[in-house]
């Protein structure tokens, strides 16, 4: 019976459960069934069926289905015949639907002919059951059977097409792009560029190596359900099939025949498409899934066939007056094509990550910019899709930041490998001039490089250097540079510097490598570099905040077609409403300049201690700051605590002066190698208002003790206290002269015979014996140069009796040296 009908009871005066007592042989009806069409049926149930319900038939069918489920994965003909016999004994519609589901199990290996034969057998049995056929569930089962039969026919048709040899005709495979360009309103150059882009991103198709799509895998892509539409009483259109999922494998199975020339385009559109029975939107989605799938080989040499299939006939266009009607779906497809061109250009970059329209919709406008980040080998937020792609690529490729910055400015590289991707970046920048602004790309590249370093600090240490280089390229945009420095400091570097500070305060010396790897995840060889990068980042932050007021806060802008796509599909992008990184950096509140400078001093002290002082030299960085300064360390940069930069206790000033003098005395190597460290020392001396002359004097004395007289002479002009320098060098000269006489006794004997060693000189050599210890045995020429330098300083210093005696002693030592000639 039709489940949409109604059972109506009619009460009688002599109504009884199993009949009437006045006429025992008669059983008049007291119930009627009304169908949806208006037919009325009297219910005349026999006594043996009075207590019989649907559950008995369901139990019967369940026992039959249990036997039918035992059908193996490779059934024989006898097993299939027995299965069909069991199917014919089913009594309910639910059981017949489940029997059809059992037949379509993907694990079972059946030939398409066997599957078609069994489907036809189910259809014939169902047609013979008139009571089941007229009900609504019966018509739904007919739809399922018709859909399965239609899909079997389509599968057999496509298998036959794919088995034929390619037959490319000149009419459909013309290499002339001119007519196609005019039909699509494109210039020849634009069309050739599109073809080239697709060719660069594709591979040759070899369909013979692909695994064939089985009939069961083929049918899983389509909806084969028993649900009926609202107008169930009318005839069902069985040729309309709904897609359940889209896959490149199904797309290749359907479109490879026409793309490889196994059938004509006309045959495909008029016969194959009509036989398939899916909507045009589903067909386009399926084609895109196949054409844009990276592992699939795309036959680009059949691109004219694809374009001709999309051609719009001029005869179908209708001239209308007034406003032109806008077809939203066509606008979406136009936007998708423009984005596909940009993605095709991105895919030509070396080792570019995979891209998809869905990623663009999910990420928002800055997707491309964020992906343009530099890998030599083949790592959250939203913003421009293309910007995001550029950033990720740059971080993974580890390209030099300067090269990427130049490429975005249309300056081509000179080397072959570099100029190739530089040209691609230049073309991409021309296609997306607003999304790929250089300063915005630098922001995303800096963030992605820093993120990649943070995940693997030891292996990706070069990316930390790249991140700082990207930030340094933002000097022309102080607001962006200020925001990026602050974000990178707060998210990545602040905690690392705190760890180093705590380790040094705990041990007072260079941490052991095992402790470093356990606490910070880096080796001792990278520790000094990490602290130096923190200092550079803080210095850039100080420089940027000074010019912050002269630059307004600018929000990122994007191309119309980038904005339009995200607006036309708002339900697809879940993260697109998040603020882009450049906008987040631009709106950062100005930091406290002196607080940042205070942290620069701390980073400089730690860097000097780790790079200059001995590993066993014990010094806690906190000893160089007073209590107020220590409390101001590592607080948020927007706060304004008390910061005594130079106004500290005398004991702290003395410790600072002593520390810097020790650093100067431990500098080694040539003058150029020490310039960077000396600049750090000078900056601390200036900011802390210490004695700079004393540090220069220490350096000059150190150079002279190392017999580098020429280097020492270059530093003398900047010294203001010539008298102090003369006294220090005089003591060094006496010690060097004494050491020289000890190693060359013949010179002393010759001088004594000539009476050149006066009592004054003898007393001087004895009195100054323990003041200065020479670093090495000097030569006669070195001592002569040193005595000449000391004599010049003594003569140019303020006159005094002591100075006169020192000048006389220098002259006597020079006379003794002449005996060695």
TrEMBL record:
It comes from Toxocara canis. InterPro entries: RAB3GAP2_C. Residues 419-792 form the Rab3GAP regulatory subunit C-terminal domain. It comes from the Eukaryota. This is RAB3GAP2_C domain-containing protein.
């Amino acid at each position: 019976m039709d489940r949409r009908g109604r059972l109506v009871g009619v009460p009688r005066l002599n109504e009884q459960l199993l009949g009437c007592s006045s006429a025992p042989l008669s059983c008049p009806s007291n119930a009627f069934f009304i169908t949806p069409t208006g037919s009325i049926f009297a219910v005349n149930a026999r006594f043996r069926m009075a207590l019989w319900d649907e559950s008995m038939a369901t139990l019967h069918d369940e026992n039959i289905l249990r036997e039918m489920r035992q059908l193996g994965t490779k059934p024989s003909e006898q097993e299939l015949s027995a299965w069909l016999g069991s199917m014919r004994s089913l009594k309910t519609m639910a059981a017949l639907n489940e029997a059809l589901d059992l037949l379509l199990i993907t694990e079972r290996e059946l030939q398409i002919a066997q599957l078609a034969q069994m489907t036809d057998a189910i259809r014939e049995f169902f047609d013979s059951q008139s009571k089941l056929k007229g009900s609504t569930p019966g018509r739904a089962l007919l739809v399922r059977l018709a859909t399965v039969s239609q899909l079997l026919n389509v599968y057999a048709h496509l298998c036959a097409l794919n088995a034929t040899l390619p037959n490319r005709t000149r009419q459909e495979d013309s290499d002339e792009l001119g007519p196609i360009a005019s039909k699509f309103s494109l210039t020849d150059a634009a069309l050739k560029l599109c073809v080239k882009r697709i060719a660069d991103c594709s591979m040759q198709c070899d369909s013979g190596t692909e695994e064939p799509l089985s009939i069961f895998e083929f049918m899983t892509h389509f909806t084969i359900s028993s649900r009926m539409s609202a107008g169930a009483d009318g005839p069902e259109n069985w040729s309309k099939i709904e897609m359940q999922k889209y896959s490149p494998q199904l797309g290749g199975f359907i479109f490879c025949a026409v793309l490889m020339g196994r059938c004509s385009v006309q045959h495909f559109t008029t016969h194959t498409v009509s036989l398939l029975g899916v909507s045009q939107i589903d067909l386009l989605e399926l084609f895109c899934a196949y054409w844009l799938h990276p592992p699939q080989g795309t036959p680009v040499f059949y691109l004219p066939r694809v374009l001709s299939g999309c051609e719009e006939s001029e005869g179908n266009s209708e001239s209308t007056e007034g406003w032109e009607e806008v077809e939203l779906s066509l606008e979406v497809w136009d936007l998708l094509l423009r984005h596909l061109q940009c993605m095709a250009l991105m895919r030509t970059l070396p080792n570019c990550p995979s891209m998809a329209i869905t990623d663009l919709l999910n990420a928002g406008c800055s997707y491309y910019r964020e992906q343009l980040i530099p890998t030599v080998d083949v790592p959250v937020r939203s913003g421009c899709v293309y910007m995001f792609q550029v950033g990720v690529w740059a971080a993974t490729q580890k390209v030099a930041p300067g090269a990427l910055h130049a490429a975005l400015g249309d300056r081509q590289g000179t080397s072959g490998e570099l100029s190739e991707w530089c040209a691609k970046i230049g073309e991409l920048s021309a296609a997306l001039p607003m999304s790929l602004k250089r300063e915005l790309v630098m922001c995303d590249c800096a963030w992605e490089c820093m993120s990649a370093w943070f995940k693997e600090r030891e292996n990706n240490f070069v990316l930390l250097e790249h991140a700082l280089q990207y930030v340094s390229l933002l000097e022309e945009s102080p607001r962006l540079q200020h925001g990026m420095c602050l974000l990178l400091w707060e998210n990545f570097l602040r905690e690392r510097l705190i760890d180093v500070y705590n380790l040094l305060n705990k041990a007072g010396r260079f941490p052991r490598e095992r402790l470093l790897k356990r606490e910070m995840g880096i080796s001792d060889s990278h520790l000094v570099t990490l602290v130096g990068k923190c200092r550079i980042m803080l210095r850039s932050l100080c420089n940027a905040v000074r010019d912050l007021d002269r630059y307004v806060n600018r929000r990122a802008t994007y191309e119309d077609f980038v904005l339009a796509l995200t607006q036309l599909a708002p339900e697809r992008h879940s993260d697109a409403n998040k603020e882009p990184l450049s906008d987040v950096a631009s709106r950062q509140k100005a930091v406290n300049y002196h607080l940042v400078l205070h942290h620069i001093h701390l980073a400089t002290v730690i860097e000097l201690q780790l790079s200059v002082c001995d590993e066993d030299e014990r010094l806690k960085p906190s000893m160089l700051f007073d209590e107020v300064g220590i409390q101001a360390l590592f607080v948020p940069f927007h706060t304004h605590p008390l910061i005594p930069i130079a106004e500290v206790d005398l004991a702290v000033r003395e410790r600072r002066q002593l520390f810097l003098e020790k650093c100067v005395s431990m500098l080694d190597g040539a003058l150029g190698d020490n310039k960077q460290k000396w600049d750090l020392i000078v900056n601390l001396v200036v900011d802390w208002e210490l004695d700079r002359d004393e540090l220069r004097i220490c350096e000059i004395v150190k150079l002279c003790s190392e017999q580098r007289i020429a280097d020492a002479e270059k530093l003398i002009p900047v010294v203001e206290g010539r008298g102090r320098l003369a006294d220090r060098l005089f003591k060094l000269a006496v010690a060097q002269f004494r050491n020289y006489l000890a190693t060359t006794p013949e010179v002393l004997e010759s001088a004594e015979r000539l009476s050149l060693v006066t009592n004054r000189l003898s007393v001087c050599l004895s009195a100054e014996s323990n003041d200065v210890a020479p670093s090495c045995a000097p030569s006669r020429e070195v001592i002569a140069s040193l005595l000449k330098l000391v004599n010049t300083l003594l003569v140019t210093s303020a006159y005094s009796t002591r100075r006169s005696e020192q000048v006389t002693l220098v002259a006597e030592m020079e006379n003794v040296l002449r005996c060695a000639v």
